[in-house]
Amino acid sequence: LDIDVENVNIIPTYLGGGFGRRLHTPHAVQAALMSKAVGKPVKYFFSRKEEFQHDMFRPPTHHVIKGKLNAEGFLEALEHDFVSGDVATDSALIPNALTNFLGADVGAIRGGFIQYTAVPNFKAVHWHVTLPFATSWWRSLGLLANTFAMESFMDEMAIKAKKNAVDFRLAQIGGDAIDVRLKNVIRAAAEKANYTEDIIDGKAMGFAASIDANTPCAQVAEVSEVGNEIIVHKVTVAMDPGLAVNPDQIRAQCEGSVIMGMSAVLYEKMEVENGELTPTIYGPYQMALMKNAPKDIDVVLLQGKDTPGAVGEPPLGPIGAAIANAVRRLTGERLTELPLKISKNNLS
Fold first, then answer.
1. 36 and 68 part of one domain
2. Which backbone phi and psi does 80 adopt, to 5 degrees?
3. Mean pLDDT, to the nearest integer, of 194-209?
4. Which of 10, 125, 189, 221 is the right S-S partner for 322, CB 3.0 to 4.6 Å?
5. Cα–Cα distance measured from residue 217 to residue 236, given in angstroms and rounded to the nearest whole number
6. Are residues 212 and 241 in the same domain?
7. For 271, left (φ over 0), alpha (ψ -120 to 50), or beta?
8. What residues make up the domain containing 27?
């Protein structure tokens, strides 16, 4: 701006957590440029409609997953091809020059790798596409969408093999340190939730697990359906973040991740109509409300290593697949798109 440093005074406003315009602040630069041009203070902001139209979005993804079962009913081969727009690199929050140093978009590939390392043949390939609207990261980056695809597929293969979903997963995890921690959270979540594949009083359970930032997490969602609405009654979370410095705060992070993930996988959606992003106000933008929250979120913490690990984003990984897997057992329908919608054929 060609303004001497001694003439710059930044007055911070102390607010609670959150990102949005509190993290990405181009308005400040634009206001300073206009103020310099007119010689007076300038207040510059978007209307709500402009914010919606010019925001950044977590990119849509597309997945093709293939698996082959052996004679014993376990995976002989597993392949995951997935495509995404920019999440971290080339987004508005990361300078384009960093792409040359980072290579692959580390945000887009989170959760897309094969965590079932005892499968003899496995491969994951990420494909990049340039989208005609601004994209960036959202809590957990690509983890939620990638885990939704992978863990939905794993559950479908367990059904095809006529095996319990938990046992099917455990049998195909290796023996490295992170593998052992993953097995432990899977067992802990299943045990705490009393996981069953029976439908009891109109409710079914769904299971999913993921590893993110070296923190394994497993979840069990208990759901029912009324009309074509998915009701989540309880979510059990088992996570191993290593040394828990503040266990209560870690549980709060798990609870927040579950609610935020539920909102994304059941309700939130942006669409492109006639070249414009819609909706443009919060009214028609559906989000999870207090009435949609599960009655119980039960969190179990394990310590599989002696140093603190990541807790803010890993619990977002399994929730989408856990809900979808429960719906599959409840209705027989495999939902493959987010947000999840039960077809009218399965109305109660």
1. no
2. -130, 115
3. 98
4. 221
5. 11
6. yes
7. beta
8. 5-45
Has residue 164 been placed in a domain? yes
Task: Report DSSP state, residue 141.
Answer: T
Please indicate, yes or no, if residue 52 is contained in any of the structural domains.
no
The dihedrals phi and psi of 229, each to the nearest 5 degrees, come to -100, 130
CA distance 260 to 197: 26
Angle between helices 247-266 and 319-331 (to 10 degrees): 50
Please give the DSSP secondary-structure letter assigned to residue 201: T
Same domain as 65, residue 38: no
> Would you say how long the chain is, in residues?
348
Question: What confidence category does residue 18 fall into, taking pLDDT thresholds of 50, 70 and 90?
Answer: low
Cα–Cα distance, 130 to 110 (Å, whole number):
18
* Tokens matching residue 114: 């094969």
Measured CA distances, 223 to 7, 163, 181, 231, 304 (Å): 59, 21, 27, 5, 30
The 10s digit of each residue's pLDDT in 227-274 is 889 999 999 999 999 999 999 999 999 999 999 999 999 999 999 888
How many domains are contained in the chain?
2
Q: Of 75, 66, 63, nearest to 158 (Cα)? A: 75
In 3D, which of 215, 208, 178, 214 has the Cα closest to residue 190? 208
